[in-house]
Every structure is written in C-alpha cells, then in structure tokens.
Prior knowledge:
Blueprint: H1 2-24, H2 31-53, H3 63-86, H4 91-102, H5 106-117, H6 125-152, H7 164-167, H8 170-177, H9 181-193, H10 201-211, H11 214-226, H12 238-262, H13 267-277, H14 284-292, H15 296-321
Helix pairs in contact: 1-5, 1-11, 1-15, 2-9, 2-10, 2-11, 3-4, 3-12, 3-13, 4-6, 4-12, 4-14, 4-15, 5-11, 6-8, 12-13, 12-15, 13-15, 14-15
Amino acid sequence: MLAVLSALGTIAVVVAAGWFVGRTGALGDGAQRVLAATAFTVATPALLIDTLGRADLGLLVSRSALVTFATTTVVALVAAAVLGLVRRRPAGDLVVGVLASSYVNAGNIGIPLTAYLLGSIVSVVPPTLYQQLVLGPLALVVLDARTRRARAVGDATVAEPVPAARLGTLRSVLRRTLRNPVIIGTLVGIALAALPWTVPDVVLQPFALLGAAAPPLALLTFGMSLAVPRVGAEAAPRGDVALVAVLRSVVHPALAIGLGTLLGLHGEALLAVAVVSALPTAQNVLVYAIQYRQGTALARDAGLVTTVLAIPSLLVIAALLG
C-alpha cells in the first residue's frame, strides 16, 4: 500500500507540474505536441528496447500474458454485447465504446506507473502488443468501412475517411501499425532478447539513457492535456459512460485477479496484471473518435472518468495484493 501511495504521489506531482506548465503557457503553444512527439517517437521506443532487450521472452507466452489477453478480450466482448444488443448503438459508437472499455493507457500512465511501482515496464508489453496489433487495426477497419458507407449515402455527420490507399484495407492498416515507433521499439527489443547471446551493456546504455526520459515526459504531457479545454460540447450518454467506467475500473481488474489466481499467479506477478488491467482508457481512443466523428463525447468522458477512478481502483488492488 505504501509503495502504491508513494508511486501515485510521485506521479501526481509530475502531472500537476505538467498541468501548471500547460495552464500558464510557460513553454509556448506547441510544447505539448513537441513533448508528446519526443516521448512517443524517441524516449518510449528506447525504453522498450532497453527493457525488452534484457528481458526473458517467456513473458510473451507466460501466464501473465494469457491473463491480459483473455481478460481484455472478455471485456471487449461484454462491451460489444451490451452496447450492441441492449443499448442499440450504431457501429461507429459501438466500436468507440468497446475501445474505451478495453484499450488501456499503457503509455502515458502505464509506463510511468509500472516503472515507479514495480521497477520495470515489462508488464505493459502484452497489452501494448494486443492493442496495437489486434484491437487498434480491427477498430480502424470497422470505422473506415462505416465512414465509407456513410459517405455513399451522404451522411454529413460522419467524417470523410482517410484515403483508401492509406487506410482502406487491412493490409494498409497493418503497415501503418507496424510503422508505429512504440511497436518498432517493442519488436527491436524482442529481437535483441531472442539473440543466442547476451547483448552487451555498452549497446543498451544509450537506449537506457534516452528511455529514462519516457515516464516523466509522458506524465508532463498528460498533465498539460488536462489544462486544455475539453473537445466538443456534447454530452455522452450516462449509461454508456457508466458501462465503460464499470468495465474499465471494476470488472477488468476483478477478472484479472480471478483468472490470475486461478492460473497460479501470486505476489508481484499477480499485482502486475491487476495494475495493468486497472489502467484508465487510452487517449488513442479519443484520437480515433475525433478522426471519424464517432463517439467523441464517450471517448472524451470515458478518458476523464476512468482516469479519476483509476486512483481508488489501484489503492484497492494494493490493499488486496500489496
């Protein structure tokens, strides 16, 4: 419990510093974009290369990874069933709701939290891979198909799609996904770990130096984003927000703890999968929603609500498992 409080307190101070900088404009108008781009394209990939390059590849076929993959899939299916069959949401809103329920903020929140709390970011690798290589591409394919159909019938409420040559096929979506710097860093790190010899420290030290900047940069960027007025004035349906909040902050962590315990995880391993499952909705979901003008209010409100609820959720997890 003390370790979680210490980690959350440290994170809160850095986030508050980011909020103050963003609110006062001390770094200029483009600072958030520059810091976010630096963290995303340089620091985080370097951190992944350094961490995974020293890691045991058994992680990706471990019981912890199985818990992450299985519980994320269950949460996504439950969200799809409720939003589609009970709430009767259209395809675009349903996809955004599913992503908001299952797509965790493994970058801005997960990396610094696991780095400070667990001493390693290895536990965020399985959800990152699952989201970037499975959930994200599938969602983009559905959203793109929805916008193309809407354009064909003249629905002006749906955004013009990205040109088909760039995003219109599964192959192009996968190509774009594999150009993601985080995925590149992950794959390079895995390749280094798969070598039949130990990578010398002198090779990984530059990546370690750059990677050390990733957690504080991500937290500063997140804090600055909180100082920016919310996008859009419309309100999300309260039932949809409540569904996402319960799935994200209660159901997913409970499933992770239950399945992890059933599979024999204990101690730090069980704590790691529980912490990752309790992370708030990723900001990527809002990016997708804005791009396609589908479920923007839900993505925005889900990100805010689940970020707030992550604090008590993590404290409960620490009390139970810490």
